[in-house]
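Continuing the batch. This is chain 6 of the set; chains 1 through 5 are on the previous pages. Same settings as before, nothing changed between runs. Recording input and output for traceability.
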Amino acid sequence: MRMTNLHSGTVRIQEALETLDRAWEQTSQAWDDSSSRNFGEEHMQPIGPKVRSALHAINHLRDVATRLQRDCES
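Output for chain 6:
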């Protein structure tokens, strides 16, 4: 497995999260009632921390795989 694949995947996930955040910001400006607040609290707010946690794990995996590859090539 090429480590660049893990890196490009994390970049795409980060960009998707940023796009989602911008879209929700725009949507929440127009949709401002109890349903939107409920949706934001239950669905949108948990996404960021979960995605950042997953990205942290992926980056750790990439680091471990890079070390393994380097060790195997020596």
